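Q: My labmate handed me this sequence with no annotations at all. I'd like to see what the chain might look like in three dimensions before we decide whether it's worth expressing. Could you predict it?
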Amino acid sequence: MTDTNTPSAIPTLGRYAQLDRVRAPHDMRNLSVEQLKQLADELRSETIDAVSTTGGHLGASLGVVELTVALHAVFDTPDDRVIWDVGHQAYPHKILTGRRERIRTLRQPGGLSGFTRRSESEYDPFGAAHSSTSISAGLGMAVAHHLRAEEDPSYRERNVIAVIGDGSISAGMAYEAMNNASHCGPGAERLIVVLNDNEMSIAPPVGAMSSYLSRLMSSRKFLSLRELAGKMAKRLPGRLERTAKKADEYARGIMTGGTLFEELGFYYVGPVDGHDMNQLVHILRNLRDAEDVGPVLLHVITEKGHGYTPAESAGDKYHAVSKFNVVTGEQKKGPAGPPSYTSVFARELVRQAATDDRIVTVTAAMPSGTGLDKFAKAYPDRFFDVGIAEQHAVTFAAGMATEGLRPFCAIYSTFLQRAYDQVMHDVVLQKLPVRFAIDRAGLVGADGATHAGSFDIAYLGCLPGITLMAPSTELELLHMTATAVAFDEGPIGLRYPRGNGLGLDLPAAGEILEIGRGRIVREMSRQSGPEQGGIAILSLGPRLAEALKAADMLAAQGLSPTVADARFAKPLDTALIEQLARNHAVLITIEEGSVGGFGSYVMTHLAKTGLLDRVRFRPMTLPDRFIDHNTQDAQYIEAGLDAAAIVATALKALGVPQTRQMA
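A: Here is what I predict for the chain of 663 residues:
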């Protein structure tokens, strides 16, 4: 069910004449083009105002305002399906589809998701928080509609529109889907791919001639003429028929640049000015009503951040912003704090590269997010941004490793999942020394479950021969970065979280750690209770800070535990694990990862050595469910990975009465 707009929930209600009348897309269907233009202007202002209070991905959403209005005005959504890829383009879409009253809860605890989500609205037919999935999903929907219509004559085939933009077209999956579309039969004829080109990287500048050609090629007259020409060509001998078809494709390709898409079996229309409502509405109506054209690719040129001067003039076009002042565009900054884990990694890598020209870096469209923008500035010839193409990034790095370079492949944990086969087959199986810098490991806050780095320990640690590190502090990350540079024996990964470190003093250079060796951080003091052996807490990664808080809480009850930092998920420090198991009654492991990770590796070793029979082992992991967007601290409390949860786990394992737990 969609929400009902109410004055109390919409602070701008009464400010926008057209937008206030739109409670759902059907309210737009009888508006004139001039009214739709006004609606787009108001929608852009509402989007800016809303995101100024929440933060979020503003630039891409501002670029598709006119396109959003035109799509919902022309097509019969939600019966006609519109898929936004990547979903962070969809803020204007959310406002127009019954969620305006909740738009200021965007990315807030309990509020709207920053991406499309099927459970949130019937107008979100597919969740797309990662990129380049829309054409595959849309093709599946179109084929499904056709099969249903064949079975049920009363069922109306739907149009399916996949809006793919913000760099998503660079991923191989998009081309795999397009290559398949021309062979999927009649169902694919209702698929319209809208290429939202907001980087001016594919098409020539939009001008009057290209606009005219786009409207012409999408018109009924042109399509009918082309169909007639096609029928005539079929009467020609086979070779001449094929020649005529190619001539048609290449003639339009020369004029528009669409030959590639034609070769993939799409009818290409474009490029089109994505901010010209008159063009968009007429072309979309032509495509909606066209028959037997086959899958269509509409190439739309938009400007990221369009219509908001601070965004247009910013280098990143306000791709992702914190809360900001609408008038000035100035983003609100929190108080200065410790450096982020990402910046510490980048600092040490840049330092190492000054004396090691074998260090090269690869990222998949996230140079600033991974900190490699600093490396790129210092060593542009050794920095490679491959676009949204994680699979290629990994194998590209593998190729460089075969020739003696020291590649660092910096990818968010959640995006590295997309290249798992390449990690296994192209890197690990061949024992190539690719360094994986796995940013955003663990829970990530406002980006929610889609962007959480929950699974990398489990999916990497099971691979033979990989080394996997997890720093507990920014100082440890400094050392692990230096360790990764020096490690040439095979693949190695270092996973680190989103956010700031603890504010520790950092030396000028990192130290090389011994592979597979953890450390005791705090020794158990003498126990005051009757329990034999006491408690050991073995932490992997940044939960060490919470483990130390828990140790203080337990010490207040006379149960000071031993606290250890594992440092390595693989290879395990088996000597440390065995020491803790032999000398303590309870052994707790804690990690910022899913079931099947570090705790499982420890438990397997304990079982094999027989030590699992003599120690009360309690693994603490993320729960077996997805955790919604919130602050990181709140997410870890919800996950049961905070100090209080560690204390409760320890006391329950010891069998301490509830009254003592509450003391």
